[in-house]
Design a protein that fits this description.
The chain is of the alpha/beta class. The protein has helices spanning 5-23, 41-47, 74-79, 153-167, 211-220, 242-245, 261-268, 296-304, 345-359, 368-375, 379-385, 390-408, and strands spanning 57-62, 85-91, 109-110, 117-120, 138-142, 170-174, 186-189, 204-206, 227-231, 288-291, 311-318, 330-337.
Length: 415
Amino acid sequence: MAMNRATFTRSLIAAAAATSAYAAPSTAPAAPVPQANVALGDERFLSSAWRELAGRCVGVVTNQTGVTSQLETIVDAIRRNSQICLRAIYSPEHGLRGDQTAGAYVTSYVDSRTGLPVYSLYGATRRPNAAMLSGVDVLLYDIQDVGDRTYTYISTMAYLMQAAKTYGKQVWVLDRPNPIGGAIVEGPVLDPRYASFIGLYALPIRHGMTVGELARLFNEHFGIGCSLRVIEMSGYTREMMWPDTGLQWVQTSPNIPEWSTTLVYPATGLLGGAGINNGTGYTKPFKYAGAYGLDAFRLAETLNARPIPGIHFRAASWSPLEGFWRGRTLSGVELIITDARAFRAVRTAVEILLAIRQLSPQTVSLHAAALDRDWGTDQLRRGVAEGLDAESIVRQWEPQTRAFQTLRERYLLYT
């Protein structure tokens, strides 16, 4: 049916109005950040606990993740309060802005934005010394963790607490959620023979604790003995995973861009020492597992046939943009989490390792130095070499994991 003149005219007017509205510049401010379900430790400090400083000066141990639920940095929020004396900033691995690659040397400098010294705790030293702590009475720790023993921010916290003990400073940990929840404890407990900066104390790989709870454990059970205070969150429960908190995710490091990456990090993060590529240096870090020349479809079929909860494996190929494998096409599987609460990351790592070794024995490296350090035990390496299946390997460390769950009870802050 032909459009009559009146209808045609109305259509032109409506189209012109729509175009005009689209083109007109907006004068409204950006949308506010939605209200979260959890009040963070830093927000509780900023609202009231700061008054208990009683004039003492603070240094802030933080990075890009040290923000309130409204995404204001802890440093900026403190600077808005003229009654808080702020002397210095301390940064962990990846630097204050989180822009340095894994393992990169981080220098100290004076921050042009604040005029404050930024002392690196991942450069010339990993412990603050007397000069770095001069004029500071209380150290505030405000960094988002990922819930994995091997992530170095909790080692930085432990070293900070040790230095505070040595130099007579107080530590206040401004608590934050464990993004992968506090209900699941998984993986081998670190054997002290393999202690390193990616595992200082006898924790399982997935410990299920917040940084505040870990600080209490480090301080008492592992004997640091500093003057410690934890500023707790409100509204947080152990069953919460990151989406339940209503908080916005800020990437914790270049290879942890999304909260969902923290789910798979305790799985594929353990595979690099065995010569398996985990997708770092590509668009979905830690969400892949494979190598050069693997049959991706056979690997996916093998893994999907196993009783591994909460996950599906998709045959995939990728070409890293940097690193050793840059420009070469790798093949393997993409990890698709179907049920975050059922997913067992460390069990999944064992399954992937065994499946790749079955299909391509030459791909898997069992060098003790790398595997034993990363896993914090020789049980994994020895079990694989002996031909044990996944259930038997995991069963070896379960008694220690259960013992840790009993131990941690006295240090937990949330139900």
